[in-house]
Specification:
elongated, two-stranded antiparallel ribbon, 5 helices, mainly alpha
Length: 207
């Protein structure tokens, strides 16, 4: 399983990745500032809750970058085909190269990928034989981070004790409700989308 660096030049993919990174930054900055740190100072939560959130956030962004730059299984220009496997190879009618069966040609990347599942604009890369497990990691960590964020948003209003002091001169706390509603909306959208994608990926692997 190779782990060569693979970089795709695709403006649409860059925009999609930029949106994902913006959502990640938004929640990584505002959730601790609005919920975790104030409630920790007043003794409503422990430091473990803060550390868990940052660990989940770190794993999520790390898996995003790993999946986006990992080689998905790009076929070389002159592949060496073992004589015993000639029957398992076929000619691609788009790039005129020999490829093993179950490989597909990606029009965005411009080459064939072994066991290509799909081209994902959110990671600006194909999902293929060599980075499929990294894509599943990304889906898994994103579900955990989104769920954790939604739980914190809910607990802040319906479970935690009200904060005794707030710095109302700071922009963040004056717009706390709007910021957390945006966070909850983004978390819900991402959780639903990623959970459905993760389920279909697992079903595809099992079947």
């Amino acid at each position: 399983m190779g782990q060569r660096i693979h970089f795709v030049v695709d403006p649409q993919g860059w925009c999609c990745m930029g949106l994902i990174i913006f959502i990640w930054l938004y929640n990584t900055i505002f959730i601790p500032k609005v919920i975790l740190f104030p409630h920790y100072e007043e003794g409503n939560i422990s430091v473990a809750a803060i550390l868990c959130y940052y660990f989940c956030s770190l794993f999520c962004i790390a898996s995003l970058f790993r999946a986006s730059v990992a080689d998905p299984g790009k076929l070389p220009e002159n592949p060496k085909i073992p004589i015993t496997e000639l029957e398992r190879w076929e000619l691609c009618n788009k790039c005129n190269m020999m490829r093993p069966k179950r490989s597909h040609h990606c029009s965005r990347c411009g080459h064939c990928v072994r066991r290509m599942d799909h081209h994902c604009p959110w990671i600006n890369n194909c999902v293929g034989e060599d980075n499929h497990w990294l894509f599943l990691q990304l889906c898994f960590y994103t579900q955990i981070l989104s769920s954790y964020t939604l739980i914190l948003d809910f607990c802040h209003y319906y479970y935690f004790l009200p904060l005794k002091k707030n710095n109302w001169d700071v922009f963040v706390f004056r717009h706390e409700l709007a910021l957390l509603r945006i966070s909850a909306f983004m978390g819900l959208i991402i959780l639903c989308g990623i959970s459905r994608l993760f389920y279909t990926q697992l079903m595809g692997i099992f079947t």
